[in-house]
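Practice problem: predict the structure.
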Amino acid sequence: MATLPTMEKLTVLPVPGFGAEDVVLDDSGVAYTGTEDGSVFAIADGGRRIDLVARTGGRPLGLEFLGDGRLLICDGNRGLLAVHPSGHPDRLRDGRPEVLVGTVHGRRMRFCNNAAVQSNGDIWFTDSSRFYGVDKWEADLVEDTRSGRLLRRSADGSVEVVLAGLRFGNGVALAADESFVAVAETAARRVVRHWLSGPAAGTTDTLADDLPGYPDNISRGSDGLVWVAVASPTDRVLERLMRAPMPLRRVAWRLPEPARPKPKRTVRVMALAADGSVVHDRALPADGFHMVTGVREHHGRVWLSSLHEPAVAHFDL
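Answer:
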């Protein structure tokens, strides 16, 4: 997959918190993101207005909107939450989150990560690891525990595990016609597709394989495409480690931080059609912003977020 020429200008909008991991926009164009201190911010007027709209008490990751206007938050520590965003940062009367899913089959989720909301009210979401939480995401990636799950919370509140054994199950997106749900497997560098309707309903195949890096959050854009955040290009050391004996893998992620494999400074996103073909492949300079973990196309503007930045960014197609 060749990268198309870089023509876009990246606009960076700082937020008052580190690690703006995902981004979602409401109908009026206000962007929302969550930071590592548990805050959720609304960004309006080109970044000139930033309001604190919720505190989760955990680590907010993936964000979506529910049909009733509430903000759906995948909190890496607390589970699947919902909140009515408050417009006043000092009172937060409506900014107290409700826990929709904290446990699955009686066991606490370790790493609630990303979600997509179906028109019938069902929520599709990932639990990236059954062994490690968000603070040790590198451990799960290096050990390649293959313990990620795709889950569905039905409108009646019941929860089921739809796919298990995912290699760090991460971003989730529904097809424009909701015929399938896609989920990123970060360690496998692929996006799998679970069919919800049609002759293949109930089966799972691959939407995109052998990606040029490690996919993180994914989302369906207003253009109907599945947008993929490529957090880091393929790392040969990490690829070898994931195939090494488990004792070596467990030692590797416990090495001092400078000796561990680390994400490269890149900005890259891709957009996939329903048949898996690449419609957009964009790489941008990473001098002022890097490690894109979230992407959201909104009427021709592509918004980016990052686990390693106190900011969100955007560029125009």
